[in-house]
TrEMBL record:
EC number assigned by the record: 2.1.1.297
GO molecular function, one term: peptide chain release factor N(5)-glutamine methyltransferase activity
Domain of life, per lineage: Bacteria
HAMAP family, sorted: RF_methyltr_PrmC
Species for this entry: Oxalicibacterium flavum
The UniProt record lists the keyword Nucleus: no
Protein name (record): Release factor glutamine methyltransferase
Coiled-coil boundaries: none
Binding sites annotated in the UniProt record for S-adenosyl-L-methionine: G116, T117, G118, S119, G120, D139, W166, N182
Domain Release factor glutamine methyltransferase N-terminal stretches: 14-73
CDD domains, sorted: AdoMet_MTases (cd02440)
Domain Methyltransferase small: 95-190
Task of the protein: Methylates the class 1 translation termination release factors RF1/PrfA and RF2/PrfB on the glutamine residue of the universally conserved GGQ motif.
PROSITE patterns, per the entry: N6_MTASE
């Protein structure tokens, strides 16, 4: 049975308590190809049978837990619009901290590498803000890279993409001024993997199926071979991993090691500068 019937006005649909008002508005805008202003000015318009069916499908899937971003097929990040699908993580506001820190440390015409790019949100946001930079991004997933390439084109940026399992496919002499990553860092078995949007996102991009530090260890240990002297490594991590990540950075010879807090006050990003050789 469809939760929304033909003949209902837009105003009546928006008053229904099936979903939070913002989500229902977004689904109405998508289904009817209307703007927010048009939803208001056409509030007494009634739904056709086809419109009610299409809207009901979206609402039913959302009630089953599917993320709004996947249902709409897009998400805003750093002021840009990104296509998203179940092959990539949904870009989140807290990751914008990583972009801001990277922009502060990227030299003029600098070379940057985004490890495990997923949707390409980090790489594209940086390339869009700093068109002088040479931005590279890699991911092990061909499907994710296809999505990332589309997002680079969608936002008018130039990003050089490479399929690679971390550093495996990089040339030995590939060197960057800055390396950034939002790697899988959730501990295997964490209850959050079975809750909310995470249930629908690619599990291999969320967890290392271990202690949550495997990818962070690889980044700390192997980055020095591909980082210029004085270059930075910046990594997003879990809410309780900052101390462990700082220790990994110190063990790999980084200096000026620091952790930065997101808007919720959580130590979300840690990084360090490679000491001069």
């Amino acid at each position: 049975m469809n939760p929304i019937e033909a003949g209902l006005t837009l105003e009546e649909v928006l008053r229904m308590a099936l979903l939070p008002p913002l989500e229902m508005r977004l689904f109405l805008e998508r289904t009817l190809a209307l703007t927010r202003v048009q939803l208001i000015t056409q509030s007494h318009r009634t739904l056709t049978e086809a419109e009610a069916h299409a809207l009901s499908r979206l609402v039913t899937r959302r009630l089953a837990g599917e993320p709004v971003a996947y249902l709409l097929g897009e998400r805003e990040f750093f002021g840009l619009s990104f296509k998203v699908d179940p092959s990539v993580l949904i870009p989140r506001p807290e990751t914008e901290l990583l972009v801001e820190l990277a922009l502060d440390r990227l030299p003029a015409a600098g070379r940057l590498l985004d490890m495990g790019t997923g949707s390409g949100a980090i790489a594209v946001a940086i390339a869009h803000t700093r068109p002088d930079a040479v931005v590279h991004a890699l991911d092990v997933s061909p499907a994710a890279l296809a999505t990332a390439r589309g997002n680079a084109q969608r936002n008018g940026t130039t990003v050089h993409f490479l399929q690679s399992d971390w550093f495996a496919a990089l040339e030995d002499d590939a060197v960057f001024d800055l390396i950034v990553s939002n790697p899988p860092y959730i501990v295997a078995g964490d209850r959050h993997l079975a809750e909310g949007d995470l249930r629908f996102e690619p599990v291999n991009a969320l967890t290392d199926h271990g202690d949550g530090l495997s990818a962070l260890r690889i980044l700390c240990q192997q980055t020095p071979a591909h980082l210029s002297a004085g270059g930075w490594l910046l990594m997003e991590h879990g809410y309780d991993q900052a101390s462990a990540v700082r220790a990994l950075l110190a063990q790999s010879g980084f200096e000026a090691i620091e952790s930065w807090r997101d808007l919720a006050g959580i130590e979300r990003v840690s990084g360090g500068r490679l000491a001069s050789r």
